């Protein structure tokens, strides 16, 4: 009986499932945009923030999953990294001068592992 109550656990699980399904479908070019759109809608409806690692890989224009070399290209310009979607030509820019790695990918972000 060491289960903790986590707010919005089911919604986070659904977002994670939809993101993984979108990753699988990107190679077949089927339903990937639809799954990403559903994940964004679940996050919006339940007022939950997407993890930044997920948010950085979803196109703002067409809500497609951005994978460099498959359906997006990444270029390093003078001071920023630019990722452009092939489907809608929408670009994202990340400043390289003040670039900080995603905190959730560092070791200090892991406090404990929760088993459901
Ligand atoms: Zn796009």
TrEMBL record:
Is this entry keyworded RNA-binding? no
Q: Which UniProt keywords apply?
A: Cytoplasm, Endonuclease, Hydrolase, Metal-binding, Nuclease, tRNA processing, Zinc
Q: Name one GO biological process term.
A: tRNA 5'-leader removal
Q: Which Gene3D superfamilies match?
A: 6.20.50.20
Q: What GO CC annotations are associated with the protein?
A: nucleolar ribonuclease P complex
| Origin superkingdom | Eukaryota
- Record GO terms (molecular function): endonuclease activity; hydrolase activity; metal ion binding
What is a single Pfam family found in this protein's UniProt entry?
A: Rpr2
Q: So what family is this one in?
A: Belongs to the eukaryotic/archaeal RNase P protein component 4 family.
Could you tell me what this protein is called? Ribonuclease P protein subunit rpr2
Species for this entry: Agrilus planipennis
